[in-house]
Amino acid sequence: MFKKLFSWWHEDVLLKEALEDSAVALEKAGRMFSFSMNLLLEGVGEEQIVYDMDREINELQIGIRTKVLQHLTINPEQDVTASLVLITIIVDIERLGDFAKNIVELHQMSTGKPVGGRYAQEVRNIRQKLETSIPLTKAAFVDADPEQAKTLMADYVWIGHKCDNVLELLVGDDTLAVREAVVYGLLFRYLKRIAAHLRNISSSVVNPFHRVGYRPG
């Protein structure tokens, strides 16, 4: 399905620009995630960088919506599905930025101190997996690579299950201080949601539009 959309996008100037802007936004979201995790785990970096990049993604989202609307105004009977896919995907990308901001807020909740303790390594493992997968997701999306996208979807499902398993451990862990428990509980929920939005983006390469965000049917 996505291969056909991909060929249409490259034939239309407005859709081509919207696709390129989506790739730029996803790259920025990945950088936001890295910056926010550096703050939380290492206490290194400037919070303002994350907020500045979030505004840039918001501007890209507005621009993509505008270009898609202009395309549909000019060509009302063409590429409606491609337009819907782009509008759907940029929402997922924008949400990635929002969760990066949420992680910055966890850094603030931790009074600016690096997060440590027994669950820190689990966080680092998931962070590494996500940081490796985000550029691969961008490549799979831009290149319309369904096999790579399927592999990434499986990886993101694994991350979601891993986060759920750790959350179950947190609930029964009486050794954690209240602030630490809250920070970790929210963090693993955020990591799970980040993986879910990346899975949605990957699914757009594999599934027809009505199944974007779901397992291949």
Report on the structure:
This protein is globular. Helix content is 81%, strand content 0%. The chain has one domain (2-211): Up-down Bundle (Methane Monooxygenase Hydroxylase, Chain G, domain 1), CATH 1.20.58. By secondary structure, it is an all-alpha fold. Helix 2 packs antiparallel against helix 5 (120-143) and helix 3 runs antiparallel to helix 4. The model has no long low-confidence stretch (mean pLDDT 88). The protein has seven helices and no strands.
Taken as a percent bin, the fraction of beta residues is under 5%
By CATH reckoning, the class would read Mainly Alpha
Structural class: mainly alpha
Helix fraction, binned, reads over 70%
Question: What's the order of the H and E elements?
Answer: HHHHHHH
CATH topology: Methane Monooxygenase Hydroxylase, Chain G, domain 1
Q: Roughly how many Å apart are the termini? A: 13 Å
Number of helices: 7
Number of domains: 1
CATH architecture: Up-down Bundle
What's the gyration radius in Å? 18 Å
Q: Poorly predicted ranges (pLDDT <50, ≥5 residues)?
A: none
How would you sum up the global shape? globular
Oligomeric composition of the shown chains: single chain
Counted beta strands? 0
Task: Tell me the CATH superfamily.
Answer: Phosphate transport system protein phou homolog 2, domain 2
Mean of the pLDDT scores? Answer: 88
The largest sheet, given as strand count, sense and whether it forms a barrel, is: none
